[in-house]
Amino acid sequence: MQKTRNFAVLINNTSYFGNFINQLLKQDAIKGFEELASKKGGLFSRAEIERFMDEEERHDIKILTRNTDQSLKTMSSGEQKKALLSHLMAENNDFLVLVNPFDNLDVATQSQLKDELCAIGATKTLIQLASRVEDILPVMTEFFKLDGDVLIPYPSETSFWEANQQNSIQFKGVIPPPLEPINLEHPELVSFEGVSVSFDGKQVLDRISWRVKKGDFWQLVGPNGSGKTTLLSMITGDSHKGYGKNLSLFGTKKGSGESVWDLKKKIGYFTPAMTDKFGGYHTLEHMVISGLHDSIGLYVLPTQTEKLLAREWLQLLNLHDKRDYLFRELSAGDKRLVMTARAMIKHPPLLILDEPTAGLDDAGAALFVALVNKIAQESHTTIIFVSHRMEAGLHPQFNYVLEMRPNGSVGTVIQK
Fold first, then answer.
1. From CA 298, how far away is CA 35, in angstroms rounded?
2. Residue 49 DSSP SS3
3. 0.70 cut: is pTM over it?
4. Which of 38, 46, 359, 383 has minimal Cβ neighbours within 10 Å of its Cβ?
């Protein structure tokens, strides 16, 4: 029996993969993919889920959820992808195009989906577009790279892996010091003591006890729905659930009179969704300086000292020559470097990085990890790094893992 041919296509943040996908689904002949020209294909992607979600919300047309009372919007990322895959399989497609299928999924859900896709790939052709080489399914038999709009074939699997190994990256120079150091006398920045939280009768955190001290580097991991977002929002002050609990921040019990802005002065925070808030015409230099004022963009005239500090950060990031570029013109990876510099410019006692590498290609993720390592080594800032995946090369001086698990009692913490 002839083995099913499955195609891996490595993409990056500059790949024009939309045209490639359209050609496949329109049954156009593509060199290396000629056997699919007359066959029917289905698309497994985040964009497809959003398209079906839009149909539900705007036109009340349920397709992926027609056999359930639940709406697509209320499902977890894993449930949404499971519903889409079931729909595509029911359509009897000859091949499936998978676009970064494991993005936004926790480790356990990734593993389940991987097993399911491998089983499908034994009898049905898969074309997997992946930004991260570690996500490529083991059933792949043909290997390509999409560089811009140029499709590059590899003669063998070995040549593909050799050509796409990610080299270690390091930033030259040193982390610029703050204009005004923030000194804290208390050694504990965060202290949860038996904290439980419920929403609408559903328990989200169950007797959480967690201490974060000066100089720690924590990785916060756990499946979707295990309480990570709730935990972080109680630290940043964006959730009222912290009041009345045995929770102390920077040595002060929550609710003792501190304002949200008092907390935010001591916390640097970045999540990729923040980049959407900065859609105006802000230069890179002004973006970094805005971190000194906790503002979305810069609306005051910066001092010369502030300009010099911002330029030191941009020099470190190898973006000094682009200091007058608009933030919106940057690549996704460079935007995240700038946003991290913005969060770090004051050297806050606590830096929270919430899924900072989600959606990045290998090169972008490696660059971001290198910056985080440098911050950990050269500053006194405590770091909480939230991620669904354990990033290769992340080697902080101090490393602790807070693993949230919904084992019977949702959000129970296991400290390693």
1. 54
2. helix
3. yes
4. 38
